[in-house]
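FAQ

Q: What does a record look like?
A: Structure on top, sequence underneath. For example:
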C-alpha cells in the first residue's frame, strides 16, 4: 500500500511492532504494515501518539493533515538536505523575471486549454451552446497570454477564465439534486463546492508528492506568490490537473454516486457558532477517495513517451520534466492536456 487515507471520525492510530493499527473505540479497524507505506493522509481530528509520530518519521512516511472537508492543514516535514544544489538552480532560474513569467504563462495556458477541451466535449455531447460559447471566450483569453508584460496580467487572465468556466459549470451537472451558483470556498457553502475543494486538495497533495520526490522546493513557484504555509510550486503544477478533478466531481454527481442527503447542512445559528455551512458525511468521503484512487490508476496516453501510463505516474513524470527544465536540460515545460 503506497498511500493511506484515514477519514473516519473518532479513529486514532496505535503503533504495534512494525505496523500501525487504525483503532476506533478500542477496536482494530485495520492493520497497516510499514513496508510500502509512502504517504498517510489524516482528515479531521485523528489522534497520534508520540510513538506513532516516531514510527512515521523513522519510516519516512509523508504525513499530511487535512480538515474533514479537505483543506490542507499541515505536513510532517522530513529531512531534504540532499537537494541543496538542485534547489539552488531552482532559485536562480525563478529569480529571472523573463523565465518566471514564461513558466507562469505555460501553467495558465495548459489550464485554459484543458478547460476549453472539457467545455467543447460536453457542449457537443449535451448540445448546449452556452458551453461551447464559454470555450470560445476562454480560448480568446488564452491567446492573450504571450502578449502579457507581467505575471499579474497572467493571473488576471487565469481569474477571468475561471469566472467564465464556473459561470457555465451548472450546465455540466446532470443531477437535479444539486445546484451550483458559482465557485465559493473557505469555507465551501454547498455540496458541489465542497467536493471541488476536497478533490483539488487531493490533486495538490499528489503533485506535492511528485515535487518532493524530485527534490524541488515546493514553496517557490512562478504563478503563485510566496506565502506562508502555501506550497506555491504545487499550486502552479496542479493547474493543469484541475479539470481532471472537476471531471471526477461531475462523475460522482452525474452518475448519482453521491446524493443530497449525503451531506450535513448547518443552520445560520450553527454557522455563527463556528461550524461549517456544509460537510460531507463519511459515506461521501469513502466514495470520493475510492473514485480518486481509481482515477490515479486510470491509464492515459502520455505523448512524451508514446505509452499508456497511469495518471499518478504521469503526474510524477510532469514534476520530473519541470525539474529538467529548471536545470536547463529541457528547452521548455509542456503541460499535460486532456485528450480531445
Amino acid at each position: 500500500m503506497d498511500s493511506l487515507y484515514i477519514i473516519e471520525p473518532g479513529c486514532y492510530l496505535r503503533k504495534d511492532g512494525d505496523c500501525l493499527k487504525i483503532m476506533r473505540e478500542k477496536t482494530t479497524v485495520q492493520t497497516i504494515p510499514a513496508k510500502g507505506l509512502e504517504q498517510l493522509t489524516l482528515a479531521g481530528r485523528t489522534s497520534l501518539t508520540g510513538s506513532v509520530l516516531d514510527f512515521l518519521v523513522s519510516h519516512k512516511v509523508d504525513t499530511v493533515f487535512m480538515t474533514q472537508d479537505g483543506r490542507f492543514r499541515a505536513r510532517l516535514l522530513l529531512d531534504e538536505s540532499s537537494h541543496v544544489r538542485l534547489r539552488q538552480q531552482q532559485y536562480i532560474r525563478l529569480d529571472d523575471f523573463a523565465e518566471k513569467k514564461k513558466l507562469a504563462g505555460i501553467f495558465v495556458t495548459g489550464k485554459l486549454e484543458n478547460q476549453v477541451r472539457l467545455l467543447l466535449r460536453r457542449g457537443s455531447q449535451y448540445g448546449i451552446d452556452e458551453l461551447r460559447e464559454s470555450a470560445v471566450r476562454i480560448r480568446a483569453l488564452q491567446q492573450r497570454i504571450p502578449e502579457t508584460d507581467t505575471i499579474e496580467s497572467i493571473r488576471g487572465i487565469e481569474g477571468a477564465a475561471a469566472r467564465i468556466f464556473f459561470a457555465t459549470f451548472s450546465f455540466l451537472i446532470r443531477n437535479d439534486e444539486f445546484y451550483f451558483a458559482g465557485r465559493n470556498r473557505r469555507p465551501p457553502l454547498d455540496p458541489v463546492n465542497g467536493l471541488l475543494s476536497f478533490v483539488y486538495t487531493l490533486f495538490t497533495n499528489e503533485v506535492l508528492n511528485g515535487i518532493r520526490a524530485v527534490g524541488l522546493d515546493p514553496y517557490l513557484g512562478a504563478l503563485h506568490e510566496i506565502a506562508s504555509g502555501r506550497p506555491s510550486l504545487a499550486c502552479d503544477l496542479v493547474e493543469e490537473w484541475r479539470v481532471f478533478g472537476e471531471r471526477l466531481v461531475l462523475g460522482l454527481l452525474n452518475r448519482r454516486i453521491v446524493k443530497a442527503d449525503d451531506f450535513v447542512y448547518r443552520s445560520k445559528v450553527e454557522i455563527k457558532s463556528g461550524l461549517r455551512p456544509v460537510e460531507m458525511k463519511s459515506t461521501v468521503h469513502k466514495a470520493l477517495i475510492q473514485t480518486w484512487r481509481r482515477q490515479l490508476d486510470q491509464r492515459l496516453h502520455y505523448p512524451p513517451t508514446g505509452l499508456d501510463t497511469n495518471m499518478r505516474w504521469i503526474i510524477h513524470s510532469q514534476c520530473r520534466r519541470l525539474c529538467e527544465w529548471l536545470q536547463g536540460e529541457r528547452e521548455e515545460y509542456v503541460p499535460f492536456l486532456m485528450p480531445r
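Q: Is there anything notable about this one?
A: Residues 83-326 form a domain with the Four Helix Bundle (Hemerythrin (Met), subunit A) fold (CATH 1.20.120.920).
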